[in-house]
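[Q] Does anyone have a clean structure-token version of this?
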Amino acid sequence: MDTPRSEGRRRRIEASLEWLARYDAIVDDPAAFRAALEPPAPVDLLVHPGRTTPAALGAALAARGLAVETFAWAPHHLRVAAGAAPLPGAGTLPEVVFGYALPQGASSATAARALAPRAGELVADLCAAPGGKTALLSFLAGDRARIVAGDPSADRCGLLVTNLARMALTGPLVVQQDAAALPPVALFDAILLDAPCTGEGTFRLASPRYEPRGEAGLGPARALQRRLLARALDRLAPGGRLVYATCSYAPEENEEVLADALAARDDVTLVPLPDGMPGQPGLTAWNGLRFPSRMTLARRLFPHHTGSWGFFLAKLEKRAGDASADGATPVQPPADDPEARAELAAVLADRFGVDADAALADQVVTARGRDLWLLARSAAPGDRDVDLSALKVVAPGMRALHRTNTGPRVTNSLLRWLGPRITQRVVELDAETARRLLTDGPLPCPDPALRGGVAVRVDGVVVGAGHIREGVLQFEIPAAWR
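[A] Here you go.
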């Protein structure tokens, strides 16, 4: 007998499938599309290139009986499936807890790769939470792009900060900001706008979290997307590029929004995406509407193309010209705090044997309350400044140290970032012992001479902080990371 909950789920599935049938006329293989909705969404991992490689991580997962797949179109990603061993939740994989990877649908990688940020560029990720795309943007630029990552929600900003901290990135600066009301803080070289949408691309029969709203849902989504895109194009520097993306199939949220933006201004055009993108071209017509012929440069990703979420993306470029009249009022970049730098340097040298002058040479060190922060010097606003006074800065880089009543505590992020620079107070573990320490709790410390706070290194890679008391070692990796 169906319970009210199961009956509601059945109705949601039926309504979703009925709504998605509207795309049979435009999808290249309707049968394959519907078949791809039957299995649950895959577990895709964004691999941290500074900590491991997809090949090495894939080999480690395969050795534990998990099936692994890679993609030419998403080279930073792995797909993990149950093989000889059952598949745990993505967030509980030890490799994720240890900071080698972050769960992220591989389709999302296409947006960051299309934007292709470079070191020293000023980049905005306007709807950035939960942070996977921001992390990939930073990886692509070697953690040396000046990335301003924002979200209007305080809770989602917290999730964004948490995920960037897990990846130990010092380049992104996180702000709480409604992108539709973005003040004239700067002109950006590159902007990623993964706009809020109806989310129909996330639907799966096995876990139908998508709530179909039909035509009633399209109107508000489209209105918000138009406002976001118009504001983003205003803040794009002449010669700059913008990637517009959604996880919706609806032409009303994709081609129609882009066509309206292109019709409203003559300084923006659609440009080609990188070669090798999966999916099918954007539409030039829908329900009696005609779109520009260059709309075929956009890309529609259905689940049968990638196995991942449904996705849409397009790349726009602004005509080169004079930016001087529309920039932000120049301000000084975040000032390096000599006292904070000296405090952090002393802790690193005394506790972990780190050559602090070399480690911190390319970092701006700032203090906020009880916390010390690192921001990559090349990522700090410079030759074209960001007016930080107009933004609510949530995280000015990576939190490195927290002052407590019992003394300074370095963060797990800092230890991961320092990595091989740490020469003392290190506990060396093999991967199997580290997994047991994570799942079973405290274990006897392999180095009986050590006491107190330590860095834990697994097969040569620092994964975070530990603490030794009476010869017993326990992890101090934050609960939010597990």
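[Q] Thanks! Anything notable?
[A] Residues 94 and 114 are 30 Å apart (CA to CA).
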